[in-house]
Amino acid sequence: MTLQRITDYENLGIGLFIHWGLYSQLGMGEWTELLHKRDKKSYEKLKESFTAEEFNPKEIVNTAKKLGAKYIVLTTKHHEGFYLYDTKGLSNFDALHSPAKRDLIREFIEACNDAKIKPFLYVATYDWHSELYEKDFNKYLDYLQSSVEILCKNYGKIGGFWFDGNWNKKEADWHLNDLYGMIRHYQPNAIIINNTGLKNRGKVSNPEIDAVTYERGFPPKINHSGQKKYVAGEMSLTLNKHWGIALNDLDYKAPREIIESIAHARQVGANILINVGLTGTGKIPALCENYLILIGKWTSMVGNVLYYGKIVDVKARHPKDFALKMNDSLYLFIFDLQIRGNENVVLGGEKSSTRIFDNINKKINKITWLDNNETLKFSQNISHQTLAVDASGFDYGTNWVVRVAKLT
């Protein structure tokens, strides 16, 4: 059984993941408190300099739209325990008790709704701030549920909840039926995701889970089984090696890797999150913003098939190529093409690259590239269900990394 909320979630396709908290002021990654063994009292004084003066959710939503993201996941609280919203007296370790004096999550949700982008809320379940986490776990779980209930009851319709941290106490009873049952009561159509961690990718931990995670993993297929209902899948990647901003991490992924990762996610029917860490004052760093806009050129070129294309039993003989089906049309995703030059500037794409696909049993009349509407030569053997496409190289001045052809 596939629930409508899960179908709708899969059609979102691409999301923007945002990490932001007190750690952002240090610019050394979201785990800096623990990994750098910082004194807890000194670290938590960062609340006193948290101004959020450059946090403009409308600008962030606009950048997400340029990326092609249909939803945004924002950290409401990371493992440091600092809340970006008004906890209504539950804790004074929140944005309302900082110089920001703003409910940043309310502003974020309103900006998303105005732009018709789904707001998803990240909630860390593993918590370094609350003493209850180690001293009285059951009371901590009540505290955790109360913090989520505030989000459920006071912010209108939420697209989904993205939990992270149960992997820290693998054997504990996290009272998930209580937590998820409360969410279902107030937000019946919210997607529930609980990040399984690096060692349990794709594991379904509770019947209410709607999507399994593959953090930094790219599986050959998604585990949709394990429950009575169909469960979606989601991958995630960050632009360098950190999720929270790390000013000295220069190891940024090549745009090719990001584009190919998005394509692979859609090949196996998974959503994908592209992560950025905001600055300490709440802005997307200029380099990251330019990356997102650059990737958005590709997502815009591919268009609706990136969101609504479905897995089809077409086999490509090239190890990376694949096909998706949308409506009555097939779309071929073709990798590793070169640029066309001439006898003076030889760039490797002067000759067509023949790509063969099996299990195509309908007559094809026309094949065109989506990026320039160029018609491609092809040959088809219907009795053998094979299609050979002369995949031409990129026009000089362009390189889309992954090229998409529509079969009519």
TrEMBL record:
TM spans (from-to): none
Keywords recorded for this protein, A-Z: Glycosidase, Hydrolase, Signal
Annotated Pfam families: Alpha_L_fucos (PF01120)
An example Gene Ontology CC term for this record: lysosome
Domain Glycoside hydrolase family 29 N-terminal: 9-303
An example Gene Ontology molecular-function term: alpha-L-fucosidase activity
EC number: 3.2.1.51
Family (UniProt): Belongs to the glycosyl hydrolase 29 family.
Known function: Alpha-L-fucosidase is responsible for hydrolyzing the alpha-1,6-linked fucose joined to the reducing-end N-acetylglucosamine of the carbohydrate moieties of glycoproteins.
Record PANTHER family: ALPHA-L-FUCOSIDASE, ALPHA-L-FUCOSIDASE-RELATED
Protein name listed in UniProt: alpha-L-fucosidase
Taxonomic classification: Bacteria, Bacillati, Bacillota, Bacilli, Lactobacillales
